[in-house]
Design brief:
Length: 194
């Protein structure tokens, strides 16, 4: 069975645009079909400033193990979120995080609350692992309403642009999924940003 969980989408758009049949669907990356692969690459290419890397593959830096999809009424993928299970280094020891990546929504389906719905599903899944923190690189204006706050720690990553804004990576943000406090000090991603 391909679905881990589904969640009806809570619509924020007008009732005329409300797609009642949309739901968030979990897929392991290994279960993505050939047709879905093509749809994902098309969605990414149109969503991320036409980055040519998406013409060849369905990830920017590292292939994620987990994906959440929203399919339209015709079965086409209209929204996507990926998650990397990561063990990062901190001053107080290793810490498991869910690295959220490649969050995007087709331009015809924006304003419907799809990102919030996908992130709620991701949060529940991470908590079931149990993973205490979700982490992403994005714009606070978009992700603050889903509980993400800017990370104040110094950050070490394999790619040199990790500390600066760029359209594919953004600012580091975290979301606490438990009562555990976020550690102080240097954060070592032990690889590239996601």
């Amino acid at each position: 069975m391909l679905c881990y969980s589904t969640m009806p989408v809570l619509t924020l758009g007008s009732p005329a645009r409300r797609p009642d049949s949309l739901e968030v669907i979990y897929r392991s990356d290994s279960s993505v079909t050939g047709d879905e692969d093509g749809q994902l690459r098309d969605l990414f290419f149109s969503s991320f400033s036409f980055n040519p890397i998406f013409l060849a593959r369905r990830y920017l830096k590292e292939c994620p193990a987990h994906r959440w999809l929203v399919k339209g009424e015709g079965g086409e993928i209209v929204a996507h979120t990926a998650v990397h299970e990561k063990t990062i280094g901190t001053a107080s020891g290793d810490l498991r995080v869910g690295g959220v990546a490649e969050v995007c929504v087709d331009s015809n389906h924006r304003g419907l609350g799809l990102v919030k719905a996908m992130l709620r599903s991701v949060d529940a899944w991470l908590q079931s692992r149990p993973i205490d923190f979700a982490m992403l690189f994005g714009d606070a204006r978009i992700y603050a309403s889903s509980g993400y706050v800017p990370m104040r720690n110094d950050l070490r990553a394999a790619n040199a642009l990790s500390r600066h804004w760029n359209p594919f990576c953004g600012k580091p943000m975290i979301k606490c999924l438990s009562d555990r406090p976020w550690p102080a000090g240097l954060i070592d991603l032990r690889g590239p940003t996601f």
